[in-house]
Design goal:
It is a single chain. With about 575 residues, this protein is α+β, with helices and mostly antiparallel strands. The chain has 3 domains: about 50-220 and about 405-455, Bira Bifunctional Protein, Domain 2 (BirA Bifunctional Protein, domain 2), CATH 3.30.930.10; about 245-385, Alpha-Beta Complex (YbaK protein); about 475-579, Anticodon-binding domain (Rossmann fold). The chain has 17 helices and 31 strands. The strands form 8 sheets. Strands 3, 7, 8, 9, 10, 11, 12, 21 and 24 form a 9-stranded mixed sheet that branches. Helix 1 packs across helix 12 (about 445-455) and helix 2 (about 45-65) packs across helix 6. It starts with 20 loop residues before the first helix and ends with a helix. Bound molecules: zinc ion. Zinc ion (ZN) binds near residues 227, 397, 398 and 400. Zinc ion binds near residues 229 and 400.
Length: about 575
C-alpha cells in the first residue's frame, strides 16, 4: 500500500476528549473516530489491525473445535421476554419498534438467539457437544461511555456458546475454551489472570473473568505474590492481624481524651501520637432495616459488598450528618460503638474482636475514648470479615503478601448450565428418547477493548507500538528524498519485491521531509522500517530499523535485507527476539 493513496487522517495534537494514552493515540494515529458518544468508526489503519486481532482469536477458537456463525444484531424483543432478561437489562437494552409496530432491540448479548437457534435445530444427543461462536457487534446503552473503545456503547465481541448433554460435558467444553483463551492472551503478550467472579446479569453457576493488569483498569483485584491466590477486591480475604496494643492503652477502664477539632483518623492519630492501626473507626449506615453501626480498624476500608452479604441487606448508604448527631449525640468524626441510640445492628470486623483495647470516638464533640474493649464496653451483633484487603495483607492460603492491582476485564467465561435452555425449553432427545435441556456455557472476549488494551500496553512516547502479529503493516519502506529519481527507483523496487514476497508493506512515497515521515511511521506503529537514502544509491547500503528495540541493522545487499525482514515477520519468533 502506498501511503499517499491510503487514508490516514492523523492529528498533530492530543485530542482533548481523551484521557487514556491508548485513546489519544488511536485518535491521533487515525485508527478510530468517534461518531457519537461511545460509538466509533474504525478507520482503515485501525480496521486492518483489528482484523488481524480477530483472525488470531478465530484461529484459536477454530483450533479448540468451535464453529463460527453470525447472528442478527437486531433481535425481536419477544425472545428477551421469554428469558425474562428484557427487565434485567433495564435501560442498557436499546429497544425500538419496526414499521409494523413490533418490538425489537439491539443485541447486548446473544444467549437468547443462540438458545433459540439450537433448540429449533438440534434434535439428538448425537449432535452434541457443539460450540458455536461469532465475532460481532453488540450494543449496550451505557449511561457513561468513556475511555474510547474500553467502555463504548457499540462494541465488537467474540462470543461463544457451548451445548452439552450433561455437566461433565460442560466441564470439558469450558476447559477447552479456557485453554483457547490462555493461548490467545499469551500470544498477544498480555500479563493476565483468571479471577472467579460474580456471574452478574448473564447468570449461571460459575464464572471466571480474564483480567489484565493495567494501572488504568477500572477494577481491582488482590493477588498473592507467593501462592497465586487471586480474587476481585470485593470478595478478597486476608488474614486479620492486630498490632500490639500500645502501652498507654493497657489501663483497664475507658479513658476520655481531649482531641479538639481533630476529626479524621489521620488528625487524631497524629495529635495523640498513636498509630492509626490502634484506632477503630465506627461508621453509621442507613439501610432498609434501619441504622447500623459498623467498625473496622482505623487504617481499613469497610467492604460494602461483604457487609451487604453478611448483614443480608440490599440498601446501604452512609447516614446523614443529622442522623449521626441524633444517634451518637456528637457530630460526625467522633462516633464510638457504645451508648448508641436507635441502632438495629452493630457489626464489627474480626480484627476488632481480636484485639483487647481500641481507641474510638467518644460520642462527644472534641473527645476520643481510649481502652474501649469489645464485649465489655459494647456488644457486637455480628463479628465477621467486613474489611477490604489492602496491599501487604497476609494471604489466607500461605504466608505470602497480597498485592492490590488495577485490572481491565477482557474476557469472561460462564457455566450457564440450564439457565437459558430451561426457560426457553431448548433441548435434545437423549439415547432413551427422553427430552432433556442443553447444558450450556458461554464465553466472551471484548475484542475492541482487547485491541485498545494492547495499544495501552504497547505504546511509547513516539506512538503506537503493537506486536507485529497485529500491527496494521509489518514493514514500511521510507524513501528519504523522494524527489531524487535514483532514491525513488530503489524504493520502488524494494516495495515491489516485498509485495511479491507476500509481506504486508506500507510504502511512504510522500514528498515530505525524512523527519516527518519517520515520525508518522512511528506514530501509526509500523514495527519495521526500511530506510532508503543516498547510501542505498551510492554504496548499496540499506538500513533496517526495528521499532520495538530501537535497534538499527545495515545490509549491503537486498537479498539479506529481505531474508531478515521475512524472519522478523514470522510472528512468534518476533516476539521472542524483541520482547
Ligand atoms: Zn498465598
Amino acid at each position: 500500500m502506498r501511503y499517499s493513496r491510503f487514508f490516514i487522517p492523523s492529528l498533530k495534537e492530543d485530542p482533548k476528549e481523551a484521557v487514556l494514552q491508548s485513546h489519544k493515540l488511536m485518535l491521533r494515529a487515525g485508527y478510530i473516530r468517534q461518531l457519537s458518544g461511545g460509538i466509533y468508526a474504525y478507520l482503515p489503519l485501525g480496521y486492518k489491525s483489528l482484523k488481524k486481532l480477530e483472525n488470531l482469536i478465530r484461529e484459536e477458537m477454530n483450533n479448540a473445535g468451535a464453529i463460527e456463525l453470525s447472528m442478527p444484531f437486531v433481535q425481536p424483543l419477544d425472545l428477551w421476554k421469554q428469558s425474562g432478561r428484557d427487565k434485567d437489562y433495564g435501560k442498557e437494552l436499546l429497544r425500538f419498534k419496526d414499521r409494523q409496530d413490533r418490538d425489537f432491540c439491539l443485541a447486548p448479548t446473544y444467549e437468547e438467539v443462540i438458545t433459540d437457534l439450537a433448540g429449533k435445530n438440534i434434535q439428538s444427543y448425537k449432535e452434541l457437544p457443539l460450540t458455536l461462536y461469532q465475532i460481532h457487534l453488540k450494543f449496550r446503552d451505557e449511561i457513561r461511555p468513556r475511555y474510547g473503545l474500553m467502555r463504548a456503547k457499540e462494541f465488537i465481541m467474540k462470543d461463544a456458546y457451548s451445548f452439552d448433554v450433561d455437566m461433565e460435558g460442560l466441564d470439558e467444553s469450558y476447559r477447552k475454551m479456557k485453554k483457547a483463551y490462555t493461548n490467545i492472551f499469551h500470544r498477544l503478550g498480555f500479563d493476565f489472570i483468571f479471577i472467579k467472579a460474580d456471574s452478574g446479569e448473564i447468570g449461571g453457576s460459575y464464572s471466571e473473568e480474564l483480567m489484565v493488569v493495567s494501572e488504568y483498569g477500572e477494577d481491582k483485584i488482590a493477588i498473592c505474590n507467593n501462592c497465586g491466590y487471586s480474587s476481585s477486591l470485593e470478595s478478597a480475604v486476608s488474614v486479620g492481624y492486630s498490632p500490639e496494643p500500645l502501652k498507654s492503652c493497657r489501663q483497664p477502664r475507658m479513658t476520655k481524651l481531649a482531641t479538639p477539632n481533630k476529626k479524621t483518623i489521620e488528625e487524631v492519630s497524629k495529635y495523640l501520637k498513636i498509630n492509626s492501626e490502634s484506632f477503630a473507626k465506627t461508621m453509621v449506615y442507613e439501610t432498609e432495616i434501619g441504622f447500623i453501626a459498623v467498625m473496622v480498624r482505623g487504617d481499613r476500608e469497610i467492604n460494602e459488598h461483604k457487609l451487604k452479604r453478611i448483614a443480608e441487606i440490599k440498601e446501604l448508604a452512609l447516614a446523614k450528618e443529622r442522623d449521626v448527631e441524633e444517634i451518637t449525640g456528637a457530630p460526625c468524626g467522633f462516633t464510638g460503638p457504645f451508648g448508641l441510640k436507635n441502632i438495629k445492628l452493630i457489626i464489627i470486623d474480626e480484627e476488632i474482636q481480636a484485639q483487647e483495647y481500641w481507641l474510638t470516638g467518644a460520642n462527644e464533640k472534641d473527645f476520643h475514648m481510649a481502652n474501649v474493649k469489645p464485649g465489655r464496653d459494647f456488644t457486637a451483633d455480628i463479628i465477621a470479615d467486613i474489611r477490604t484487603v489492602k496491599d501487604g495483607d497476609i494471604c489466607i492460603r500461605c504466608a505470602g503478601h497480597l498485592n492490590v492491582r488495577n485490572v481491565i476485564e477482557l474476557g469472561h467465561i460462564f457455566k450457564l448450565e440450564e439457565k437459558y435452555s430451561s426457560v426457553m425449553d431448548a433441548g435434545f432427545l437423549d439415547e432413551h428418547g427422553i427430552k432433556k435441556n442443553f447444558v450450556m456455557g458461554c464465553y466472551g472476549i471484548g475484542v475492541g477493548r482487547t485491541f485498545q488494551a494492547l495499544i495501552e500496553i504497547f505504546s511509547d512516547e513516539n506512538g503506537i507500538n503493537l506486536p507485529i502479529l497485529i500491527s496494521p503493516f509489518t514493514v514500511s519502506v521510507i524513501s528519504l528524498n523522494h524527489n531524487d529519481e535514483n532514491v525513488k527507483n530503489i524504493a520502488d523496487k524494494i516495495y515491489e519485491d516485498l509485495l511479491k514476497l507476500g509481506l504486508d508493506v506500507l510504502y511512504d512515497d510522500r514528498k515530505l521531509s525524512a523527519g516527518v515521515k519517520l515520525k508518522d511511521n512511528d506514530l501509526i506503529g509500523v514495527p519495521l522500517k526500511i530506510i532508503v537514502g543516498n547510501k542505498a544509491v551510492k554504496d548499496n547500503k540499506y538500513e533496517l530499523s526495528i521499532r520495538k528495540s530501537g535497534g538499527k541493522e545495515f545490509f549491503d545487499n537486498l537479498e539479506s535485507l529481505y531474508d531478515r525482514v521475512k524472519k522478523l515477520s514470522l510472528i512468534e519468533t518476533f516476539i521472542d527476539i524483541v520482547r
